[in-house]
Amino acid sequence: MSFFAAALAAACQFPKPADRDPDASPDAPTDAPVDAPPDRVAGRFFWVYATEAEPVEVPIDLSTTSVSVLVPEAGELRPIIGVGRADGTYQVDGVPPDVAFFIKVGRDPDWTSARNLTDRSILQYRHDAAMATQPTPVTFNGELPAYASGDVLDVRSHLAQVEHAILLTPGDTSFSATVDWQEITAQRSLLPVAARGDDLSIVQLRTTPASDVDDPEVQQVLAAAILDGQTIVDGSPITVDATLTAPTASFKFGTSINRDLLEDANTFSARPAGITVTCAAVPSLVSRRGGPRIFLPIVRVAKFNWRETDVRTLSVTGTFPDPYRPSWPRMCRLDYSRSRAFRYRDGSIGRFSASGSRYSIPNLLDRALPPPRDVRIDGRDLDWGGMLTANAPHELTWVGSAAANSYEITIFSHLPGGLRRYHIIIATAQPSLTIYPEFLAGVERVSIEVRAISAPSDFAAGEHTPWGVPSSEGSFLSALFRVSSTCGDGQLDVGEDCDARGESATCDVDCTAVTCGDGLRNPTAGELCDPVEDAVNCDADCTPAVCGDGYRNTATEACDDGGTAPGDGCSPTCRVES
Description:
By secondary structure, the protein is an all-beta fold. It has four domains: 2-123, no CATH class; 137-246, no CATH class; 253-484, Immunoglobulin-like, CATH 2.60.40; 546-578, no CATH class. The protein is 1% helix and 39% strand. The chain contains one helix and 32 strands. The chain has one helix at 284-289; strands at 40-49, 56-59, 67-73, 76-81, 83-84, 89-93, 101-105, 109-112, 116-123, 137-143, 152-157, 162-165, 174-180, 201-208, 217-226, 238-243, 250-258, 271-281, 300-306, 313-321, 330-343, 349-360, 373-377, 380-381, 386-389, 394-399, 406-415, 419-428, 432-435, 445-454, 471-477, 481-484. Strands 11, 12, 14, 15, 18, 19, 21, 22, 25, 27, 28, 30, 31 and 32 form a 14-stranded mixed sheet that branches. Strands 1, 2, 5, 6 and 9 form a five-stranded mixed sheet that branches. A hairpin with a 4-residue loop joins strand 11 and strand 12 (162-165).
């Protein structure tokens, strides 16, 4: 559930309830009171503070949060109101036994049949870490190898969640900078305490540019000063002296990644937007309990970045200087995305991306989760766009990966000026979902993202927040759909350019005039795809991308000389010949 994005941690820690069902193992997702009535749905929300010590669970106060179950009945949803409590638990009574339903705690619903639910979010710092509440000037002085253009000099702490850049000039071999620790991060400024095992370092990173369009740029540690014995006290000025030297230890790994596993070949109107692999030192407990959205960059050892390459097999290999704690496992995260653009009716253009990730030890990085395929709503390909009746349910289906154990469906609202806002997120364990009218209320133009998730947590059994290692995500982003109760009735209504009761050579199915790049594919008008800019399988003029047609598609072709003969500088696959 996305409730975590807005929730605040409780001010105190509540004791963990004892196991209540002797027939289930302790903490089993199905664990429920022996005497619980069969019409009860119960659950709890909590933070998990995961550091090198034992995890600490802190409940989220639900006493002012709306809680309900939505039960499908005769094509509609019947709400059953529940209650949330300050100890992070909630309860809904009166839910018919043996039926699936939507559980809604806060804004977003989950589709489930589990009767006892848990939602946890992993936080990568101590539960009792103090924040700077007043000006706390910290002066960093030191020596370092000659600073080069493109270098980064960072103050870092994983356990305090700090990453702060010190700005230098190329050629500098020393630095002196004072920062106010109270303002060192935008959201919270945690104070590292040496006695509690908190880490602190100053790291100089250097980036090697890509030597070829298909090669990555590589960022790695050039020099570092490990300052783990340093404590910063709220309101107390302090000076930290450091000499950065090349690390004596190193981290070696090698793997390859098949891009065909990361992409949906049926997405005609998207283009590659980049692939990044980040390898980092992660506290042992976080490395085991993290999930597909764990944040890695703070103590990274190496980072590979491919921009708009079309190479199919990516090599991630090398030996890299590694100054971090040997006791922390080295984990890697693969992030990839494909962007698609829409031209709005006011002429503005919005660009958005479908993304995926893989979090694991390095040699398992190649087992990424493919995005959902053949995604359809009421039988219509989501890559085409279209029209959704406002007052009727719609059936969303897709082909999922065998490794996926849950899915998140996000409906975005698109607004003039190229803007997009999240409207609702619905989670499910099934490769299908009914979109009820309640989920489309208040929006007119939408896109739908379907995200597959693979994690050790068991959504079907009631663990509704993905967590654990290894874990992966992969998403598909639709074209644009219009939500309307009048489009298609043959009458020209306010906001409609036309109404042909469907698709025609001059009118799209959403009652707008045909425009290439508007996010809606109209084959009757000659559109075989619909991007604003060159995409993997589609040229910017809404015709299929074909090597040898004389038009260079910037998403997939390095050249296009109008033919497919070899030996003329442009290969039969539109790659530059040496």
